[in-house]
Amino acid sequence: MLAGANDIAIQPxxxxxxxxxxxxxxxxxxxxxxxxxxxxxxxIPREAWIAARQxxxxxxxxxxxxxxxxxxxxxxxxxxxxDLCTPILTFVFGAAEVGGRFAVISLQxxxxxxxxxxxxxxxxxxxxxxxxVHELGHTFGLRHCYRYDCIMFSCCSVExxxxxxxxxxxxxxxxxxxxxxx
Length: 182
Ligand SMILES: [Zn+2]
Ligand SMILES: [Zn+2]
Description:
By secondary structure, this protein is α/β, with parallel strands linked by helices. About 35% of the residues lie in helices and about 15% in strands. The chain has a single domain (about 10-145), classed as Collagenase (Catalytic Domain), CATH 3.40.390.10. Helix 1 (about 20-30) crosses helix 3.
């Protein structure tokens, strides 16, 4: 743990259950060894809505966060419960500035119910925590990893998310350590 370094804040965008925010907070504190404060919620910005797709543009949500964020935390993770996309991707589980300060995750496609399966609260919360650790990893400059069990593996399905461990492979862990020394 690096004392006092790299503080993280979690920014709810819209109403997010406290239990879920606490689960994400615990994972981020555990994995990154940083404090992870939970900020008061902000409304999801209307400017990010794409009516033709009935989704929100993740890039615009991050742009909104850069304007609304408090100055102190070194990194801020947005958490929203709306479907996210980019101009070229039909959906994203999250998005981040590589080597930057902001990231965002969406809860929409992480619930088993989204795939016609019975609700599973613990599985859902675990997926949310994995998405949070992954997107914040990008802000520390990490890119995608080829190891399917590494948290930085890029997957476009929840099955892939479930195969990942909630930790970095040795190679990504080393890159993270190097990034945090700077
Ligand atoms: Zn990624
Ligand atoms: Zn890795």
